[in-house]
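Record type: ASSEMBLY
Status: queued
Input:
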Amino acid sequence: MLLKDTFRSALRGVTVNANRSMLTMLGIIIGVGSVVLMSSVGQSMQGVILGQISSLGPKSMVIFPGQQEGGPNSVSTGHDSFTFEDLRELEQLKTITDIAPVIFITGTVSYGHEEGSPQVFGVRANFFRNQNIVAKTGRLIESDDNDGAKAVAVLAPDAVQKFFGSIDPLGKRIKIGDRHYTIIGTTKALGSQFFQNADNRIYVPFNVARDVTGQKFLNYATMQATESFDLAFDDVKTLLRRRHGIDNPTDDQKKDDFVVRSSAQAGQILGSVSLGLTLFITTIAAISLLVGGIGIMNIMLVSVTERTGEIGLRKALGARRIDILLQFLVESVLLTLIGGIIGIVGGVFIAFLIAGIAKYFLATYLFAVSFQSIVASFLMAALTGIIFGISPARHAAMLHPIEALRYE
Amino acid sequence: MSTTPLIETKALYKSYENDGVLTPVLFDINLKIRRGEFVSIMGPSGSGKSTLMHILGFLDGHTSGDYLFQGEPTKSLSDDDLARIRATRVSFVFQAFNLLPRTTVLENVLLPLLYHPTIPVSEREKRALEAIAIVGLTDRKDYLSNQLSGGQKQRVAIARALVTNPDLIFADEPTGNLDSASGTAVMQVLQKLNKQGHTIILVTHERTTAEHAERILHIKDGRIMSDSKDFKRVMAGEKDALK
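Status: finished
Output:
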């Protein structure tokens, strides 16, 4: 029997009972669809995070006060161990540059009747450079604002939306705590940074925040390594341990009262997260394809029983065992492949819908589908068809022609 | 013309084994059938006539004795060899028609050609249409099998048996499921095919059906009781014509 004829006979087997074929395929459709969907969402999320990391640059670093996870006090921006003296000495280091200290102002923010509590950051001009934040309207905080401790503020998009809606906020005076600040600019959207909304912020000059809070410590600081993160990291550790009187010859970071993070480290974390995600998706794929495959095997066995007479006839007309085996095997592969294609199209479609919705929450979320995940799903579907189709096909091929002909 | 019989059996014996119990079905079958003959194998239910047809038609093997097809022994043939012979040399018409459901007349008649090793793809449709024309169903070629009457279904089955131009056509109770008019039409087609040179073996339990052949092998309890040409042959349709 020619392969073309085998394919046609198998296709006839699938189409003659279209409803049942569709129900048989359902397991594969859902399995493949969910794999494609999840790998797409995973990839989009990875894109969001990678985008943030790359926007910070590979030499970007952050120092947080407090201890590593597992230490007596976990890392916290509220910890008072990171002082102005630390900052002054850090500024002398040659391996880091552009240190941008941050002090938070807590308290209610209001404009007219509108009240809210966005994050208020006291920053210097270089903070914007370090974080790749650019002005949308007006201007950002400059050295003069800081030196003169001017009561000015720059609003991120969500804060603009919250307090001003569609009104132009430039020149308006917003109340933070019990002081008023003149709005001099707005920033472009940043999206989220490590799952925190970075657009619900108000920036004021660092010196103003220092004066208002009376705080003698920094909440955190961003900076750039001049050469490499490793060199900068060593220098920062040595300096801060000496200043804080931490004896730490074994370099056990749990003993430190500060934490240094870099975008490179974040990349590594992301790598392990995506590995976990891939394993998760693979497990789900394996389980769903197993369930789908068992469904296919069941229905194919029913189909072989139902079509015993047809098998007997085909044998009487000269079909060899291999002809019958191939016909039923191709039929189950066709079922899984058609199911796989429907699953892929459905998965991609739902991923596209999700991307459309996610854009409202994560501005940098982009629809992404990897070619590899589609090809892999397709091949997995075909393999499922072969693995779970072989037993019913063999059963059909081994039927004795006379017994098959007599079967009713 | 060769004098070798198309079919020759010598002391053919067949038994089935079920759970260690041996059930003999055919004993000492000796027969010769020549090319172009129209032979009926007649016997009551359980006589072994269907088993004999299955063995002669390469659907089943025999236990002992010899079965020579065109002088060649068939004992040592593999499953694939038997399938090839079924695809090229013999064909069947069954009592229950055995057409593929929800499939057109043309597709049903094309089916044996899928398994024929030498007929080229380009010739398939032409051959199928010729076979359909012989049984007089050209105007029904695109009908689905379930849209046909019983008689028409059996004529499709005959066309399907003809399409590979086999040496031998087996008809197993071909009129068993038909009314008398349809049965007559089917027998007419078989007699016409025989006249054109096809060798036909008809298996039936009815004497009146068996008498459409030119020779009757009467089988009972697994043995051939008589092999006779001494009867008045019925020519299908002639009685009706006389009325």
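Annotation: Chain A has 13 helices and 14 strands.
Annotation: Residues 90 and 401 of chain A are 89 Å apart (CA to CA).
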